[in-house]
Fold these 4 entries.
Entry 1:
Amino acid sequence: MSPQEKQYDVHSLTGQFCDAGKELRYRSSIQKRVRFESRLALVLVALVFAMFTITDYSLLGLSREYFLLLTMRISVISLCLLLAFTLGRWGGYSRNLWLHGLPLWIVATGIILIVPLRPDSLSTQITAVVVAIMAFYILIPNLLTVAAVACIYLSVGFLTAAMAFTGISPADLLRIALLLIMANIVGYCALLRIEFLQRKQFALLHEERDQNNQLHKEIAHRKSLEAQLRIVAERDALTGLDSRSHFMKRAEVLLKRSRLENAPFCLFMIDVDHFKSINDTWGHTRGDWILTKIAEACVQSLRPTDVIGRFGGEEFMVALPHTSPTDAQIVAERLKKNVATLPLTEEMGELVMSVTIGIAVAQAEDVDLDALITRADKMLYAGKHEGRNRVMMSQEGIA
Ligand SMILES: Nc1nc2c(ncn2[C@@H]2O[C@H](COP(=O)(O)OP(=O)(O)OP(=O)(O)O)[C@@H](O)[C@H]2O)c(=O)[nH]1
């Protein structure tokens, strides 16, 4: 038996889960229904008890025995109704079990007390006891153990009262005892079966729920993994800018949209000047830090609608939709200036960073980014050639 199945194992004699925690959870889950059914059963018992005052009257008339019986019946009825009210307020089925068992003891005592008061109607009372045993097991919700103990009390009490007050023969007493034993066995087996089936149903429901929860957890885990993978694929790990492939995808979309809208579009190719000497002088870690600072300066120089990515090494690219060549020139100059005024660490002293920017302006025949990149790269190369720290714009495409 797997550990999962073991938790839902039901005891073959008590009809309860072997696992105490599971048993408590089960009882809590049926608490509301049990309360309702118990209260309903108590009201019905009170009604049945009340109805028998009519037969008492027809048998005894307004005699002393009748009034004694009436007092007993009124006590039982009042207690039943009081318990119905109490169960509605405090009848938790996981903790206050005794409150659910109490009505059985009160009704059983009431039935036993009828024997000395109406000793001549024993046959009717035997029927009432058998019916009560069945009702205790099946109609009034209780644990099997609670119902069984109450039924044994009723049976033994009734037999004792019959022996003491009715002058019944030992053979008849034995016959009644056998009848009550039979009633108890049938009631016990019926309730055991009901308890077993209800708990199995509960177990199945919970197993299914557990599996669903597990599945939901796995789906959430996979989704978070996918999101992490997407971030890894779309973001440059050092600068947090778009990765090259993601930048290309986004820039292609922007270029296509600009063509459809007949709007201007520019592309920057940015390269940090003399970065090798930075690495050589200050080390790669400091070089990495400077790259992230330059990336930040670039982002701060752009509009939210512009898209920037790290092209590789110390090279960045920017796509500027809805940007005329004149505006692109202004943005590039601003970006260059922001990089030049970057605050660096004290130990770096007067070190000033610079970038060279090549700009390409989209033309009508540029169906994808390739031609634009080539032109921007050419301009970048020209800028490097002319001494770096400058903005160079391709004249192609400028009206
Ligand atoms: N710290 C750091 N350095 C990088 C990274 N990627 C590329 N580099 C370095 O950037 C330097 C680029 O050197 P070069 O291509 O010779 O260019 P440069 O020194 O910037 O000179 P110019 O571009 O001609 O002005 C190399 O030393 C690379 O190792 C990076 O992620 N971190």
Entry 2:
Amino acid sequence: MAAVLRRGVKLISSGSSQLLSGGCKHGRTSTLCISSSRPSSSKINVELDSSTGIAVMRFQNPLVNSLNLDFLTEICISLEKLELDKSCRGVILTSAQPKIFSAGLDILEMYGKNPEHYAAFWKSVQEIWLKLYGYSKITIAAINGSSPAGGCLIALTADYRIMADNPRYTIGLNETQLGIVAPFWFKDTMLNTVGHRTAELSLQFGLMYTPSDALKINLVDLVVPEEQVLSTATETMTKFLAIPGHAREISKSMMRKPVVDRLLSCRDADIKNFVSFISKDSIQKSLGQYLSMLKQKKS
Ligand SMILES: CC/C=C\C/C=C\CCCC/C=C/C(=O)SCCNC(=O)CCNC(=O)[C@H](O)C(C)(C)COP(=O)(O)OP(=O)(O)OC[C@H]1O[C@@H](n2cnc3c(N)ncnc32)[C@H](O)[C@@H]1OP(=O)(O)O
């Protein structure tokens, strides 16, 4: 159930099973409607300040915000609701988990499952990218932890990226390190942000960057002390909000539409390609080894 935090601000816990269709208004505060049952299953929370129009979406999928099917669906539904909500003007994406923005796609969704599962999972990955990269409202990634692969992709879809100044946090498209390949629309998103040569090296080596190195290649726009990430994101959002909305929105769409259209024109083929690639014995073996390496790292 939505709980009032301070004047004009509501906390919205949203489990995918709890979301109802359509936004609703409660007095002066515009928020999303959810039922009150089982709020503890929520993988995200959204705080929408109706006095500023700024929503903060926090990822809270323990342990590391890995992007599984349910989590992706939940994020997508919440983004859709915020997009339809006239009182929301921009969304800040950040993490409630310590040290991790998002560990990227959940490897367990791509390992040891059947083709139908792989297809459904990949469809949800496409959905989140299409939703975020084509999002009409302003998005800012407040990157308060590590952000490999799919986590980096989520950050890359934002209009602006602010990263915490902690050299332990890294960000990048590291897919090749897992023996897998970032698909063309991951590549295009990276390329549109950092340019051709940097994207080429970055993708081939599967490079992960510290915040200061990420800043050097424009993978992030700003690096600030960790405790200032959210406040800086809010200040930056205010600057974006000062621009006439329709002009900003059309400019964003002009920059991104060709890339969005490219995936829209071949979604089914892209799913087929993913299923066939990920089902290969050699790829499954690589993913299995990578998972073992993650586990061994602890011991
Ligand atoms: C031609 C091409 C055509 C089509 C496309 C084909 C291919 C598909 C491309 C797919 C694109 C893929 C994108 C991805 O996002 S792949 C995922 C990449 N992610 C990573 O490499 C991150 C790996 N994780 C880490 O580096 C660290 O875990 C992290 C995030 C820095 C956190 O470190 P730490 O705090 O020390 O925590 P642990 O390492 O101990 O992890 C805790 C726990 O979480 C498990 N885990 C971590 N990451 C993932 C993940 N991505 N998926 C699933 N599980 C993950 C980890 O194993 C630990 O589990 P445990 O059970 O041991 O507690």
Entry 3:
Amino acid sequence: MIELKNVSKTYNGAKKVVENISLAIPDGEIIGFLGPNGAGKTTTIKMITGILECDEGTISINGYDINKNSIEAKKQFGFVPDNPNLFLRLKGIEYLNFMADIYGVSTEQRLNRIEEMSRRFDMANALGDQIQSYSHGMRQKIMVMGALVHEPPVWILDEPLTGLDPKSAYVLKEMMKEHTANNKTVFFSTHVLDVAEKVCDRVAIINKGKILFTGKLDEMRNHFKSDESLEKIFLEMTENE
Ligand SMILES: Nc1ncnc2c1ncn2[C@@H]1O[C@H](COP(=O)(O)OP(=O)(O)OP(=O)(O)O)[C@@H](O)[C@H]1O
């Protein structure tokens, strides 16, 4: 469970790019964070994960405040950033062991977990190579594997499906479903409506830093039909596919 209460953020004291957001992201459902480019998705995710501090409001993850009890809060989640070009000089396996070390995963647990994820993502033969030799999709997959190696209850993923080949996207979607079937949390951002429609149980729609809608997808469609400004955003997100 992730809870945001009255969260706001400005960069350099300028206009608020996130304005008074309140959101409850429950367990047991895949929640899509949907909005056009520049809407404030990444900024919000950076505040949830403690990379940025919010100017106002509070954020908690499974009850731990990300700013007041940050270590406990950070143990609760795995985070996949939108840019997978990180730790490029490490070999895949070195990166996974590094992440497992940070989160105190035992040797036996990490072996099982790495074996399972590399089989599902078809990465077993690449783990001995440096990440800089990987394709974009492979870099994304190793980031996902690193984020999930400690089996966090809460998954936070920023545009995780962009650039993944169809098979890997399918695998990740299946993993998200399995995770929420175990009553855990999956929160991921996308600017592509089609992705949200294929994966999410519920969506939260953000535009210009404000939450415009939260609810189920069929409710969203009805909402779009009856609201001109939402319809415009809907079109923008469809065009971005
Ligand atoms: N470091 C920064 N300094 C100043 N403004 C920023 C900074 N980072 C983001 N912004 C601005 O904040 C707004 C929200 O950006 P953000 O990256 O959160 O949007 P987003 O919804 O994730 O977009 P995208 O889908 O393009 O990634 C944008 O107007 C962006 O230009």
Entry 4:
Amino acid sequence: MPVETSLTRSVLYIPASKERALEKARGLETDAIIFDLEDAVAPDEKETARAVLRKALTQGGYGSRLRIVRINGAETEWGKADIEALKTMDFDAVLLPKVESAADISNVNSALPDVPVWAMIETPKGILHAEEIAVHPALEGFVMGTNDLAKELRCRFRADRLPLIGALQSALLAARAHGVIAIDGVYNAFKDDAGLALECEQGRDLGFDGKTLIHPAQLATANRVFSPSAAEVDLANRQIEAYETAEAVGQGVAVVDGKIVENLHVVTARQVLSQAKAIAEAQE
Ligand SMILES: CC(C)(COP(=O)(O)OP(=O)(O)OC[C@H]1O[C@@H](n2cnc3c(N)ncnc32)[C@H](O)[C@@H]1OP(=O)(O)O)[C@@H](O)C(=O)NCCC(=O)NCCSC(=O)C[C@H](O)C(=O)O
Ligand SMILES: [Mg+2]
């Protein structure tokens, strides 16, 4: 489902059972929230978490932040009850864990027909079937589950994420081919700002639209890294101006800072300006 990119630089997980965190999120600078009913909620708390989440969503106060609810998988004892509960809650999208096929999306879509579906891509089959998942008409976003993926691949955690790069790129290819938002996985060491910054930079270099986060202390870094910098905005303006000047005299190519600028670079430059504008408007 091609979408207008709303801001998704920072996507904060909040365990749906934690009332204090749900309250705190109303004042946090996060672009989107994943209200989690899955891994962050203990089995004994699943029912309470649904009730606590319902109360928080009814009270509202989350402003323009995208409200995504992650449910338990259909194969678990909680999946069905989660979907039933969501039928009467106010939120923006449902996030399904461990998606491995388009049929997984169809099942949720038939139960919640008007709700955009997001997919956790976090298993080898999810990666291998990323395109058939991305092409589903109800599918709006991918969230990389790098912890589950590392577990399934039996790979080791490395600062450069070398063992995961192929999988991350496969998912991104599918997302970009079908106009789907793509959000990078979490950085577990939530007190390590320098490590988080490096991983955010890598995610942005790869092409992700933002990063999933587990703690409020991670928000500023993700928002900074996934925003166009002042230098990028300046370059975009100069590229557009140079290209338009060249075009006016019948040239198809301009040169800025010793590098060619063609029509395709202007498309990217306009995207940079449009994201910078959306960020400025969100801060007003
Ligand atoms: C990691 C935590 C357990 C740490 O919690 P805690 O020790 O309570 O942190 P602090 O004392 O530093 O908290 C300070 C204040 O911030 C609030 N807080 C903490 N976390 C959040 C949050 N995520 N959202 C909103 N607010 C939050 C606390 O309430 C404190 O507030 P105050 O009282 O005003 O001082 C904890 O951060 C946490 O539970 N994080 C979320 C963990 C989670 O959601 N995990 C599941 C998602 S990751 C995943 O599943 C990935 C994927 O599937 C994969 O496979 O990779
Ligand atoms: Mg997971």
